[in-house]
Amino acid sequence: MNLQLTAAELSLLVQSLKHCLGTCKHASEQGKDHPCDSCDAGRALLAKLEGVLKQTSSQGA
User: CA-to-CA distance for 56 and 5, rounded, in angstroms?
Assistant: First the structure.
């Protein structure tokens, strides 16, 4: 599957995912010693999106 996003849309997704991970109820209730599959997947996706965003911003410079 391919999805085309503008740099602004990608930036919004990154910001939203950071907020989601920062306010995760599972993490606050269970503590950081209890991994959450959704949070782990979210962190992996965040890293991937940030890499694409960085690459996109360096191409536009």
Answer: 11
Q: Is the full-model pTM beyond 0.85?
A: no
Residue 33 DSSP code: T
The H-or-E segment that residue 60 falls in is: none
Which residues have CB under 8 Å from 32's CB, separation 6+? none
> Taking the alpha carbons of 34, 37, 16, 50 in that order, is the dihedral positive or negative?
positive
Per-residue pLDDT reduced to its tens digit, 25-60? 766 666 666 667 888 899 999 999 999 988 887 886
Cβ contact 15:50 at 8 Å: no
